[in-house]
Specification:
three-stranded antiparallel β-sheet, ten-stranded mixed β-sheet, 38% helix, alpha+beta, Arc Repressor Mutant, subunit A, 2 domains
Length: 482
Amino acid sequence: MINNEKYEVVIGLEVHAQLMTRSKLFCADDTKFGSAPNTQVSPISLAHPGTLPKLNKKVVELTVKLGVALNCEIEQNNFFARKNYFYPDLPKGYQISQHTAPICKGGFVSIASADGKKKIQLNRIHIEEDAGKSIHDFDEKYTCIDLNRAGVPLVEIVTDPVIHSADDAFLFLTELRKIVRWLDVCDGNMEEGSMRCDANISIRLKGDHQLGKRVEVKNLNSIRNVKRAIEIEFERLIEVTQKNEIIIQETRSYDADKNITFSLRSKEEAEDYRYFPEPDLPAFFISEEYIEQIKSALPELPELLKDQFISSYGLSEYDANNICNDKEDISFFNNLIQYTRHYKAVANWMLGPLKFYCNEHHISFSAFPLSHPLIAELIELTEAGKLSFANATGKVLQALILNPQKTAIETALSLNLIQENDEAAVMAWIEETINAMPEKVKEYKSGKKGLIGLFSGEVKKRSKGKADMESVTRLLNEKLNQ
């Protein structure tokens, strides 16, 4: 029986994020995803003799932008190093990276954990070039190499070993992906490999401070898979420990279909990459003025905007968090509230029927087929009690999408859906209902208060759905409790 109450998991994450540049780190090759193999290469990315790299300035700008947003200290004196190792998809036989002087040091990412707000401390962010890709399933006899990715600019974001649950790792990656997308630093598409994660996992007895022997699970291609792999490894390491077996320091991979991890190679001794300064690239200096320019141009981050939406518009944390997940969603919200002050209703519509329509038709809010004033008019009619929410979202919205030239009120009138909240008209329907159901009225007055729903339904039927149900409930209660 595995006893995981005795143990604590310790997790450090290494996240590779591909920067959103049009060209590679040290040459002008295209970085577009999905091109035919080996069509985005040049003598430089193929490491032909006599070729020299030249630094892409946009890479530095995007990395500093990310470092500032993540509260890092920006290293002003920078240089690149050669990381030497042999692998078929590494054309030069070495990777150009940063080693002793990462461009960003420290920093943190805030998460809203189940235990409260936490700051996940970062160790560093450094720049490096990507390797190519080995393809094992194209030819049954050979491994094929695609070098389109070779030389693509990456940042590696490394946390300290301070994460203690798979859930917190999930939240960290979700928040990090939100930030890199928000800043237009990386598109965050893990399924395309533009954001990849390795998890370093160890266990120790609760209360201990010494780190245990770690395993590394590599190339996890979704945030959910990171969570699952950590959960599986936590259980496996406890089982190994309770059997008095030795934990092997190794590199493992995760099989999502079988929901297991498996060993790739032992990592008992540190690999000697023989780092030394890259002789073909000069050192580069980042001035305080450059850092300040990037800082002043930085957009407000989602966390700050979320707090503003809660305080300024009275939204719940759930609503604010969902709307502030995406720049486009915020823009859509801000455009709608130019035409209505029913902020909570706007949030409800966005996260309910409008989002449902977008998901169903695989579009974003920017492609929604109705104008902001027209949607706002529909919300106003609903909030004024002239339309039920069910009719507004189920009938009027759909009719407007088919014929957006009409106004919301014209459409609702043509469908005979405008609710009647004139008290005299509502009371007439109530009187009809009560007179038609004398036995039920006696039962209600004898204590069966749940019958109020029956009376409300009958009033709705008699009014053909036109009675304002808020008025119906109030007037029914007054009438039946006289």
